[in-house]
Structures are given as structure tokens and as C-alpha cells.
Amino acid sequence: xxxxNDEKNDELDNQKYKDEKIEKESQVTLDENxxxxxxxxxxxxxxxxxxxxAGNQSKVTxxxxxLPQLASIEDSDEIDGVLLLLNTMGGDVExxxxxxxxxxxxxxxxxxxxxxxxxxxxxxxxxxTDYSFIVPTGTMVVHPVRMNGMVIGVPQTFxxxxxxxxxxxGFVHTHCGISKERYEELMMETEVLTKDVGSVLEGEEAVKExxxxxxxxxxxxxxxxxxxxxxxxxxxxxxxx
Length: 241
Known about the structure:
Layout: H1 2-25, E1 27-30, E2 39-49, E3 60-62, H2 63-75, E4 81-91, H3 93-104, E5 110-118, H4 122-127, E6 131-134, E7 139-142, H5 155-175, H6 180-187, E8 199-202, H7 203-208, E9 214-215, H8 218-231
Parallel strand pairs: 2-3, 2-4, 4-5, 5-6, 6-9
Antiparallel strand pairs: 1-2, 7-8
């Protein structure tokens, strides 16, 4: 009887720990499956915060918390794969690219799922995984680089913008099936957004353009991750997406 009570208390403590981790970090390890795989779930939500705080009223993803967590996942013998859930408006370019590069360099299988949207710098994060899904109603906004605050009107500023944009387009092109030229065309589209430059891609369009692999939801994303884990290796070439 005492042993049963101890086991029940352990289960309650474990569930409490998971609930607290979800609430505080928007992360949890999925380990109650028949395959005995441990999948670490990470959510990229709201604004991707950079070197400055986004504000108390904003939902944010803090890259300074996420980067050490990704390093810990890489170093762990217990975690078998990583699932990213994305519903982000974009945010800081440097922080977003840092997250994308970290995810892309993980040796463990990774899958992403775009839910409400993965806009702006959220696009590189979405394609940084070994395989990507988007729900039918999901959207992705592709647009040129912007900058807040004072801008100095000199050629060097334009060159800096161009260099940053080339880093983004280069990363996206390298990690999915869209060409750099086509991605830049979508960035510079002038007939889609009424007060801006860029394109809005819904689920099927994102797949057709070669940015996302497949239309699907959580069950398909988890099934694909189990498949990668069972195969024992990451995809050899992300350009084959």
C-alpha cells in the first residue's frame, strides 16, 4: 500500500513539474508514447525578443533562454528529437537567426509545425528543422528587412540592410526548396499588402513555393519525428525538402 502511494506521489510530482515547465518556459518533454522516445517540445510564440525588452504587454520568445536550452538538448543523452511549434509575428533579426542556426546545427532529428503563422524572421526558424509542416490555415509573411528608430540616410545604411537581407535569404534558400531569386521576388511583391511590401503565403502556397515540406498537424509532425528517430539519423540534405 505504501509503495502504491509513493508511486502515485511520484506521478503527481512529475505532472506538476511538467505543468510548471509549460507555464514558465513553454517547453515540455513528450515521453508517454509507445516508442519510448523522448521528444522535447519548444514553442516559438509572439515576438522574438532581441537585445531590448519587448514590453510587459507582449508575448515573447526570449532567445537568451532558448539558446542554452538548445545546447542542453544537444548535450543530453535522454532527448531523442525536437519538435518546434511556431505561432510568431517575427521580431529581432539577430535573435531569430541565432535560434535558426542553433536548431539547424542540432545533431538530433528536428521537425517544425507552423500553426497560426510564422512571419518575417519566423520563416528561417520554420525551415531550420529537418522537416516542416504547416496547418491549412497557417500563414507566412515574407517581407524585406526593417529597422526601428533613427536611420542615417547614407549608402552604408543601404549596404547594411542589403547584407542583413542576404543573410536571411541565403539561410532560407539553403534550408528549403525555394530559390534565392524566387524568395526575393516574394519579399519585394507590391500588389499583395496594401500598406507594405511583401507576400502573404497561406498553407498550400507555402508548400507549393517550396518553403514548407507538407500540410499537416500535430499528429503528422510527431509521426515524422518518430520516423526520423527510428531511422537513427537526420536527413542528409535539407535542400531535398
